[in-house]
Task: structure prediction
Amino acid sequence: MNSTNPAEVLQALIRCPSVTPAEGGALTTLQALVEPLGFKVERMTASEPGTPDIENLYARLGSEGPHLMFAGHTDVVPVGNEADWSHPPFAAEIADGMLYGRGAVDMKGGIACFVTALARLVEEKGPPKGSVSLLITGDEEGPAVNGTVKLLEWAKDKGEHWDACLVGEPTNPDQLGDMIKIGRRGSISATVTVRGVQGHAAYPHLADNPVRGAVRLADALMHPPFDHGTDNFQPSNLEVTSIDVGNPATNVIPASTSFKFNIRFNDVWTAESVQAEILRRLDEAAAENHLRPGRDPVAYEIVWSERPSHVFLTRNNALIASLSGAIETVTGSTPQLSTTGGTSDARFIKDYCPVVEFGLVGQTMHMVDERVAVEDLETLTRIYKTFIEQWFANANA
Result:
């Protein structure tokens, strides 16, 4: 394959069925692509009880600073019903200027464009004056336990240090050049269980309906708003995502009910302070008890699920300016600097170096017929190449 052609590189990666947690040949393909460019490639497998083992890849070109990292993932989400696809999800077929396949946008396309950009740069001018590394995980779409977190720790323990990072996630809502992600809101999830007393629906005085308490607690978490947003972030938002009783009978008051929620919080809060506010609201609502007059406060338990994702904002002007300038040079567009959307592996990388995200248009990610315009692959490759040149020029100035 031609390592300077982003469509060919992406086709090779898509044809590796790397649905989390399977490596599927994707890291092996990537290794074969970058070793001829001069990269030293290392593979590491991370493990943890109760989770699948994950293969990861770390590659470095150069041995001196400044050091730029590109981070991404080769794992992809399941294809769903393959019969619904107009082109086989791992065939990487091109039709009417569109390249189809699982991972085309999220995010094998970004990896293909960055590798191609480096290949062109090395071919035209030689390696950058410094180092470029690739930090590629196979666990971003899964539990994110044995991927980027452990790969970063492993690399740091080997003496690696980075000055900046670009994550190739699909950040653009409509067209290339729309948006750079310079931060992300924090995220916390939990399950609240309310205990009651089972009984006959016709004799509520002999029972204690936990649904009444759960409804009041859930309402207290959703209203009033946690805040009204900041200069850099949207308002914090909490969503109740499920309410479960497990009761098939209509004439039986259940013994317990539970609900799950997720909050995306901005820089008004830390993970600790927003958790404290949630507990304050729950305790206050439990004591109010207006749906259960005359009874003791609602008895509830809360279990925080998974480690929280912390809010962060990148303020590294040199990194942001290099990427913004590259986008403007190639597309003529001035990108919006945004913190919208969900979480990404940037939430882990921010503890090691300044990090921003920029990749393809994300309209078809995780969908049937995920696809990318071949023209966009070429444009993103040119943006990445220009960015690499500008970042190293600024860092070496």
The first strand starts at residue 40 and ends at 48. The mean pLDDT is 96.
